[in-house]
């Protein structure tokens, strides 16, 4: 446990070392909400609809954090030979990976809390229950967070991998936001944005924060699917660099 906390602190220092990137990554969702999406948010007078719209921002923050902070970060460290070095220092790869995952949980929590407090206060829907919802959504998304380690197992250089992820991440997000019909619902749940959104809104419904009837048993099975990918990816995590031997 002490080693996990040690790597957690190391990762925290690495994040704070890039102060501009750190601050921007936290305020970026607030910037998008208040400037780019302001007209849409202003048009939603029903608190129920407002919170549902907030949900897409929460999901975007969660997935971006796990993709960049876990999957792509592991791929970057692998490419420069640091993944193997940290594993040797830790004694096994699980200690370092769980330390990295813990770092991203804390970072994501800060981003979610800041976004929720600012936006919900502006639109007069702030409550303690509402603050809890995105945090639970993040915890429910941990199977996906673990599954992003599969990126580090791909025989692709980090720069190319980052480009590929960035090309696909926004279209996948737009697909999740745009299609709300019940047709092919189970298939849509394999889209991580849709899956985490449904889980988060279902939990919010359970707290009576909003009315949402999106629960489907498929949510449970698709979560298990991502968990299985995560466990396999972690066990088979490639420590060797693609470009350095």
Automatic annotation (TrEMBL):
Keywords: Membrane, Transmembrane, Transmembrane helix. It comes from the Bacteria. The keyword Iron does not apply. The chain crosses the membrane at residues 21-41, 53-74, 94-119, 131-152, 164-187, 215-234. Coiled coil: none annotated. This is ABC-2 type transport system permease protein. It comes from Bacillus chungangensis.
């Amino acid at each position: 446990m002490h080693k996990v906390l040690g790597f957690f602190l190391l990762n925290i220092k690495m994040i704070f070392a890039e102060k501009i990137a750190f601050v921007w990554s936290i305020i970026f969702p607030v910037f998008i909400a208040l400037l780019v999406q302001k007209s849409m948010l202003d048009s939603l007078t029903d608190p129920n609809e407002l919170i549902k719209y907030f949900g897409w921002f929460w999901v975007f923050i969660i997935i971006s954090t796990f993709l960049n902070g876990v999957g792509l970060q592991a791929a970057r460290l692998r490419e420069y030979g640091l993944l193997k070095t940290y594993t040797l220092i830790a004694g096994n790869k699980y200690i370092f990976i769980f330390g990295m995952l813990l770092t991203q949980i804390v970072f994501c929590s800060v981003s979610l809390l800041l976004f929720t407090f600012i936006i919900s206060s502006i639109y007069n829907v702030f409550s303690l229950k509402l603050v809890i919802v995105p945090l639970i959504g993040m915890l429910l998304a941990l199977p996906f967070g673990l599954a992003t380690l599969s990126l580090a197992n791909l025989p692709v250089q980090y720069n190319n991998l980052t480009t590929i992820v960035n090309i696909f991440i926004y279209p996948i997000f737009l697909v999740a936001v745009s299609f709300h019909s019940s047709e092919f619902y189970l298939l849509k749940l394999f889209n991580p944005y849709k899956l985490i959104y449904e889980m988060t809104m279902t939990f919010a419904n359970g707290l009576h924060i909003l009315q949402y009837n999106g629960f489907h048993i498929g949510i449970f099975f698709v979560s298990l699917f991502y968990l299985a990918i995560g466990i396999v990816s972690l066990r088979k995590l490639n420590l060797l660099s693609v470009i350095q031997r």
